Amino acid sequence: MLLVGWLWLAKEYDQFWLIVLLLALVTARAGWEYARLIERSGIPLERSSFATVSVLAIIAYGLLEESFKALIFVGSVLYFMLRYLAHPEGLKAGAAAVLGLIYIPYFLHFFYEIYQAETGFYYVLLLLLLIWGYDTGAYAVGSLFGRHKLFVELSPKKSWEGVVGGFLLAWLAGWASLSWLPVELSSSVVFHALLMSLLVSAFAQLGDLLESKLKRTAGVKDSGALFPGHGGMLDRIDALLLALPVFYFYLHYVLKWV
User: Fold this and answer.
1) Theoretical Cys-Cys bridge with 35: which of 47, 56, 74, 234, CB 3.0 to 4.6 Å?
2) Bridge partners for 227 per DSSP
3) Is the pTM higher than 0.85?
4) How far apart are CA 87 and CA 97, in angstroms?
5) Taking a C-beta distance cutoff of 8 angstroms, is the pair 242, 107 a contact?
6) How far apart are CA 106 and CA 104, in angstroms?
């Protein structure tokens, strides 16, 4: 609810800098946690420099024009290529940095693209409801009826039954939200809710598994301890990171809302 309240304040008082600040704070912590996981995996990616460059990138994505966005990414990549050029493990560190720049600031920048649309605040809420619906449904159904494991090597508790339950609840959330949104659809609300929910659910689950792989490689249970009992920032946004670009592409190329 705190997140929704923050987003509402930014919309109600037309204060886009609050969105930039929000993503900068999220990126700072997530970038630090990512570099920590990489470091614990045996690759020397320095935490403070990775977090700093990631924050500068996400701020620049929000404040600079569209034509600068490719330059932001290329400049960030070149920095790490040059930084680790002479290091004995430089190739691994540079590759891990580039992956992290895509994974965190680049994927997160689609939040700006969605939010800045004419009714972008509502699109962001729709995405959050889809992800929360999937997470809730997957946890509830998986806990009660989970028998067939999804990917036991990475996440032993995940099940195919949970995936189905998560998708169904996400579909219901999408159906209800699309019926309420102040926009017109070119075809059936049920149809678009189905496709949106399927895409977001699939990539949210993939995001969860990707972060599980990072944690498993690093030999840790959680990415951090920012939220007692719930892990770190990456644990909170892992589903969002991969769902953001696919949700944006659907809004842009299919619905043409952004």
Assistant:
1) 47
2) 231
3) yes
4) 14
5) yes
6) 6
Phi/psi of residue 108, each to 5°? -65, -25
CA distance 98 to 84: 12
C-alpha radius of gyration, the chain, whole number = 19
Task: Identify the burial level of 229 via C-beta atoms within 10 angstroms of its C-beta, where 0-12 means exposed, 13-18 middle and 19 or more buried.
Answer: exposed
Residue 161 tokens read as: 């039954």
Largest CA distance in the chain: 57
Measured CA to CA, the distance from residue 229 to residue 232 in angstroms comes to 9
In sequence order, what DSSP letters do the residues of 57-98 get, joined into one string?
HHHHHHHS-GGGHHHHHHHHHHHHHHHTTTSTTHHHHHHHHH
Nearest C-alpha neighbor of 30 from the set 233, 221, 212, 229: 233
Give the number of C-alpha atoms closer than 13 A to the C-alpha of residue 77, restricted to the C-beta side: 12
- Measure the CA–CA gap between 178 and 190, rounded to whole angstroms: 9
Q: State the pLDDT at residue 31.
A: 96
Q: How far is CA 35 from CA 67, 89, 178, 209, in A?
A: 29, 15, 38, 18
Long-range Cβ contacts of 181-186 (<8 Å, 24+ apart) = 181/119, 181/122, 181/123, 181/126, 182/119, 182/122, 183/119, 183/122, 183/257, 185/255, 186/255
How far apart are alpha carbons 141 and 162 in whole angstroms?
5
Question: What is the predicted pLDDT for the residue at 178?
Answer: 81
Task: Walk along the chain (258 residues) in steps of 10 and give the mean pLDDT of each run.
Answer: 87 94 97 96 93 96 88 93 85 93 97 92 94 91 82 76 89 84 70 89 93 91 75 92 96 89
* DSSP-assigned states of every residue in 98-137: HHHHIIIIIHHTHHHHHHTSTTHHHHHHHHHHHHHHHHHH
